[in-house]
């Protein structure tokens, strides 16, 4: 539920927590809006309530103009490794793979469920009376 404080500040109720969203500064008290430079769900609720376009609140790094500018220059291919000039100190260095210790026991085959994913298991029924709630 969105409660406007003024034109740019909103109090968004998320379950039993209140989140403060400031649309002009692109901030939310959950901090996801600031970190990801994308509106969090609280900010999206406030943006929808204010009837503003969602694209105005995305960070510039996600906009097409930034991507075009990043790749506008020439990208030169890397030559063959035999043509590289490697400093003498680096040439004698040997890089070993990271140490790996296998877990004890049989490897797990069951995959981890993603967030929000749940299995719809079958309800068990009694083999005698056929009703659910118990299995014997």
Automatic annotation (TrEMBL):
What keywords would UniProt list here? Metal-binding, Zinc, Zinc-finger
InterPro entries per UniProt? Znf_PMZ, Znf_SWIM
Lineage: superkingdom: Eukaryota
Among the GO molecular function terms of this UniProt record, one is:
zinc ion binding
Which residues belong to any copy of the SWIM-type domain?
10-51
PROSITE patterns given for it?
ZF_SWIM (PS50966)
Which segments carry the region annotation Disordered? 105-136
Query: Looking at the keywords, is Flavoprotein present?
Result: no
Q: Which Pfam families match?
A: SWIM
The reply on keyword Zinc is yes
Q: What is this protein called?
A: SWIM-type domain-containing protein
Species name: Acer saccharum
Q: What is the lineage of its organism?
A: Eukaryota, Viridiplantae, Streptophyta, Embryophyta, Tracheophyta
